[in-house]
Amino acid sequence: MLSSADDARYMAAAIALSQRGRGRTGTNPNVGCVIVKKGVIVGRGWTQPGGRPHAEAMALADAGKAARGADIYVTMEPCDHDSERGPTCSRLVIEARPARVIIATLDVDSRTRRHGIDRLGEAGISVSVGILEQEAHRAMAGFFTRMEHGRPHVTLKLALSLDGCIARADGTSKWITGAVARRHAHLERARCDAILVGSGTLEQDQPGLDVRLPGLENRSPQPVVLGEAEPPENWVQISFPEEISGLADTNWLLVEGGAQTAASFLRADMVDRLLLYRAPIIIGGGLPGIADYGLESLDSAHGHWRREDTRDLGEDRLEIYERAA
Amino acid sequence: MLSSADDARYMAAAIALSQRGRGRTGTNPNVGCVIVKKGVIVGRGWTQPGGRPHAEAMALADAGKAARGADIYVTMEPCDHDSERGPTCSRLVIEARPARVIIATLDVDSRTRRHGIDRLGEAGISVSVGILEQEAHRAMAGFFTRMEHGRPHVTLKLALSLDGCIARADGTSKWITGAVARRHAHLERARCDAILVGSGTLEQDQPGLDVRLPGLENRSPQPVVLGEAEPPENWVQISFPEEISGLADTNWLLVEGGAQTAASFLRADMVDRLLLYRAPIIIGGGLPGIADYGLESLDSAHGHWRREDTRDLGEDRLEIYERAA
């Protein structure tokens, strides 16, 4: 008999695997899955680029016959709706005859929600739901945001001085943060489907927006410009923040500024996460990171952001805030 | 025989005591002292308001005859220059006949430097110097800054939003931070001799600058205004940051803004410590905390500030930076 601590540990491993697909699964959830038998992980899988095969299919193929009688940990309820692209995961799981299926969170797609777990239960498989549910929700937030709000999950990233500037008054912004922080920011790019800047930033900085990390160059997200600037080849152009709903295959969007673009996403209440790289420098009278977004009073500024993590990155400090519930 | 770990522990206690006098010892160092005999602290003392009696005199009076053969931990070399206000601490210590005197840091006053320890050594007392020297230096930084630069130690305090604003565009600043952070800021006031704001802040906010903490009301620092505003009764007025050198009885100065005042102290290279209370709110297009202070390039902004501490204060975060060596 496994303890709930063991269950949580294996689920944490499945959640970690789920991040491997992040930013490449289109509108599919980036699910992770591990299969455990007698204390040994015999199968691992995560949603593949484009959204198929699913994590469970990958893990079951990895485990082979060892899946029989094993415990399957999966970050989301196995899919139960037919697709031209392959069999449902609920069917694959049942055929593998595991002892238990442990699920972090239910699907929110009405074609599957509860159908997946009901199907497993009818087949005589023990099913548990809810282990590390909150962590799993965060790990697949792009999918859930799309299902709930019809748009990608939005991270607003800013590299700031202590006094909240993103550049000197003359626009100079190289560099606010150090090499470690900048590499971390590139890793965040690799975890998104699309990346957006405003017209002003495009015209002034002509940013590449690619992932410049060895081995991850092919993880560069789709570049998007907001506004009227002439977009470079292969860029997507939108006129309003609301148009991010129409971005193809995008669960995760990274918004990199500048100040007007940040404000327009805040005004539209479309920022889910703040990624603030804070350098130990004072610019003084520089360009502020966020322009007026229509805040009506100081009171109304409070209660919207909850600090989720902070860490040192070289001399700099990363502060991550998430939308308060 | 005491281990050096014991020595460090007792010296840490002496340093903690030194903070009780901080902001009330005039131009004297705020020294702390503990006397230890057979593992028991038999005497404690710190520099009294106005600068006398000194910490050693207080601790020796507290210990009485128990000081004989004991170990005396003191954060700074005992004074060795005669004063109308009482005997030298070196003489008091010798008369008490301790076994050892453990000193964190030497005095920098040429009337005493090394004379204090030489006098003790000549009297046959064992003397150690240098334990927790850096910590002691920080704890008495007001005195050392005055001796080295002829001016008080300056802390610049700002209450900021995530985007570096100290108010909305219309000047509204109540409140950026929460009750816990504001109380902490009042505690910092109580630890300073004087507190300064610019003319604009005085005219706009009419701040009391007093310590509004139960039991510490009498610890309110001397209010000072920088600039041309008509000062309220009992305030001191100066025209340039450099004039803080002339503030009476001031080792520790707290500068509370606004943006122009912060910039003028930065321009004069007179900020030793940053006390940033950071609230989890976004103002957007508000008043920046620090105005242009003449930064010549982004490169030259780096390397000046080292993070010394961060802590949570309710929903807010306190970040303390110190001048990098």
From TrEMBL, chains A, B:
Binds 1 zinc ion. One of its GO terms (biological process) is riboflavin biosynthetic process. Pathway: Cofactor biosynthesis; riboflavin biosynthesis; 5-amino-6-(D-ribitylamino)uracil from GTP: step 3/4; Cofactor biosynthesis; riboflavin biosynthesis; 5-amino-6-(D-ribitylamino)uracil from GTP: step 2/4. Its cofactor is Zn(2+). NADP(+) binds at A159, W175, T201, D205, G258, A259, Q260, T261, A262, A263, S264. Substrate binds at S173, R189, L209, R212, E256. CDD domains: Riboflavin_deaminase-reductase (cd01284). The keyword NADP applies. The active site is at E56 (proton donor). Zn(2+) binds at H54, C79, C89. Its EC number is 3.5.4.26, 1.1.1.193. InterPro entries: CMP_dCMP_dom, Cytidine_deaminase-like, DHFR-like_dom_sf, Eubact_RibD, RibDG_C, Riboflavin_Biosynth_HTPR. GO terms for molecular function: 5-amino-6-(5-phosphoribosylamino)uracil reductase activity; diaminohydroxyphosphoribosylaminopyrimidine deaminase activity; metal ion binding. Keywords: Hydrolase, Metal-binding, Multifunctional enzyme, NADP, Oxidoreductase, Riboflavin biosynthesis, Zinc. The keyword Phosphoprotein does not apply. Gene3D superfamilies: Cytidine Deaminase, domain 2, Dihydrofolate Reductase, subunit A. Residues 5-127 form the CMP/dCMP-type deaminase domain. It catalyses: 2,5-diamino-6-hydroxy-4-(5-phosphoribosylamino)-pyrimidine + H2O + H(+) = 5-amino-6-(5-phospho-D-ribosylamino)uracil + NH4(+); 5-amino-6-(5-phospho-D-ribitylamino)uracil + NADP(+) = 5-amino-6-(5-phospho-D-ribosylamino)uracil + NADPH + H(+). NCBIfam families: eubact_ribD (TIGR00326). In the C-terminal section; belongs to the HTP reductase family. Converts 2,5-diamino-6-(ribosylamino)-4(3h)-pyrimidinone 5'-phosphate into 5-amino-6-(ribosylamino)-2,4(1h,3h)-pyrimidinedione 5'-phosphate. This is Riboflavin biosynthesis protein RibD. It comes from Parasphingorhabdus marina DSM 22363.
